[in-house]
Amino acid sequence: MANAKLEPSVLLTVSGPDKPGVTSALMAVLAECEVDLLDVEQVVINDHLTLGVLVACDRPVDELAAAVTETMTPHGMDVSAARKDDAVGHAPSTHAVVILGSPVSAAAFGAVAGALAAQDGNIDSIRGIADYPLTGLELMVSVAPGPKADAALRASLGGVAADYPIDVAVERGGLARRAKRVIVFDVDSTLIQGEVIEMLAAEAGREEEVAAVTEAAMRGELDFAESLHQRVRALEGLDAEVIDRVAERIELTPGARTTIRTLNRLGYHCGVVSGGFRQVIEPLAEDLELDFVRANTLEVVDGKLTGRVTGEVVDREGKARALAAFAAERGVPMSQTVAVGDGANDIDMLAAAGLGIAFNAKPALREVADASVNYPYLDAVLYMLGVTRNEVEAADAVDGTLRRVPLDPAPEQ
User: Which cofactor is essential here (predicted)?
Assistant: First the structure.
């Protein structure tokens, strides 16, 4: 912060039980001492307050500390003071690092801190952002500017995530992190559990055959369009009413409804881009109040599935085009878009987005994604966008949707 009275300066630290009136009392005594504020930070952990105030002050440190201590002691607060030569308010952090785990062990956090130190990175602040369904911590950090430092930070923290049962996401700090406005989700195994094409194939008694093709396509071993046509042929002759039966059996991924509801509150334009089928997805999109839907269309003739799709196939390239079209429709630059998916056919879409998140994804997608979630809770995406669980639940409490369901034991990573 630019300030004509940067020197001399004093850092005051006040700590003790959090209760009303503490900050007010501190500011009152500082006003009497005629100091200028340079920086203020406050943290509350389990009802214990730590408040740091950097001030410009001409009087001796001992004199200032004595005045503050006299005022704050009746509030049960401890006070320390230290002269800070050439002190200034801190510059904005270069990156946000989000750690997710169930739980986050001290060993895992220590490894993250060690990796940051090895990159000459400084942790500017730490806050808890979630206690359900995962533990979430957000670190605002600063490293040397430049693409090499950025890549080294991501690689280093990615190595920690591979060694411990945690997810670590790295995003650039600043305004860009909070400027995202369009988000699109893949559907099968991302927004919903399972693969619709396999559920349809089960009606024809060919689920295992189709599942094998799906797996190969998601790993990137088969061209998606070719694999789609191959799988859809297995549906030839089924009554069209099977579509409705399958749609009724769809189960959302845990946290999906909370995620979409919260993003809608925040003013995001939310949509789905799927290699699946519009006839199944559109009722779901309407229920979730999504803004966009792009998916394939099963051909139906005389009430029967023909084993073909009609129109342009939504494949790997088609997904990226759909994201770009959605963003253009809403006048949002691609840097302000987010894409979430799980398979190789999502690679182009995640690469094109301002932030690409791999959700319980195949290795081919994790390699190109900006961030990965390896826990089965879609609301973890919110934490990577800087939204806290307290903010989500405060909004849910207002409209009567707040609830926490019991969780199954955390899966092994």
Answer: Mg(2+)
Is residue 268 in a domain?
yes
Say which amino acid occupies 306.
T
The residue annotated as part of the active site, out of 186, 342, 346, 379, is 186
Active-site annotation holds for 186: yes
- Is 353 a member of any domain? yes
Q: Rg for the chain (alpha carbons), in Å? A: 26
* Spatial separation of the C-alpha atoms in residues 188 and 281, rounded to whole Å: 10
Distance CA 129, CA 195 (A): 31
Answer yes or no: are the C-beta atoms of 141 and 156 closer than 8 Å: no
308 is a domain residue:
yes
pLDDT at 81 (0 to 100) = 94
Q: What is the pLDDT of residues 392-403, one digit of tens each?
A: 999 999 999 999
Domain count, the chain: 3
| pLDDT score of 59 more than 90 | no
What is this structure's pTM? 0.85
Indicate whether 69 and 151 sit together in one domain: no
Provide the pLDDT confidence category of residue 2 given band limits of 50, 70 and 90: very low
Give the active site residue among 85, 124, 188, 396. 188
Confirm whether 302 is a catalytic residue.
no
Domain coverage including residue 268: 182-196+238-399
Q: Write the CATH number for 51.
A: 3.30.70.260
pLDDT of 145 higher than 90: no
